Amino acid sequence: QKEVEQDPGPLSVPEGAIVSLNCTYSNSAFQYFMWYRQYSRKGPELLMYTYSSGNKEDGRFTAQVDKSSKYISLFIRDSQPSDSATYLCATYNAGNMLTFGGGTRLMVKP
Amino acid sequence: GAVVSQHPSRVICKSGTSVKIECRSLDFQATTMFWYRQFPKQSLMLMATSNEGSKATYEQGVEKDKFLINHASLTLSTLTVTSAHPEDSSFYICSARVREAGEQFFGPGTRLTVL
Prior knowledge:
The structure holds two protein chains of two kinds.
Chain A: E1 4-6, E2 11-14, E3 19-25, E4 32-38, E5 45-51, E6 54-58, E7 61-66, E8 71-76, E9 85-92, E10 98-100, E11 104-109
Chain B: E1 4-7, E2 10-13, E3 19-25, E4 32-38, E5 45-51, E6 57-58, E7 67-73, E8 76-81, E9 90-97, E10 104-106, E11 110-114
Parallel strand pairs in B: 2-11
Antiparallel strand pairs in B: 1-3, 3-8, 4-5, 4-9, 5-6, 7-8, 9-10, 9-11
């Protein structure tokens, strides 16, 4: 079983929609969770960094961690075509190394 | 967020030559730097981890004599691809963090093409 699982998509939504991106993880001991955005041919950009359970909001982005179900989510409000990218969830595993989901490709259509 | 730079952004070289890629943390001191490789439409694959002043730790299957890593200071790490071959063509991305389990920031990547 992979440590972090993520639906690869692609996920296609109209401009202005609310986007929900999700990951599951295997180890209940994981505590630090991150969301990265990666545009084609670019390095990943850190969007959100959260610790333990709860919500964290930054502009149009909200990260949510549910430790009871080992489920992490990223919500994007009022999605824009410029949000079209691959979104990667990540967590630090038991070896303190960043472990990524496979990435979800998002397409926001004008 | 913090800034990590890479140079060059793109390099084309002949088979058999060596290529050096630089990674710098511009506004913070990175205790640990990482080198990743990414093939088209695939996720990032960790190649090695380096701490300043120490030898790099390579992931299984990564040849340490082929991918030389030098972490000379808290703001600079270099990856040298020695005797490059066409199968080494890939997107190489470095990453840096200040502390364990801290935020990890990525560089913009270097696209290597070996002819």
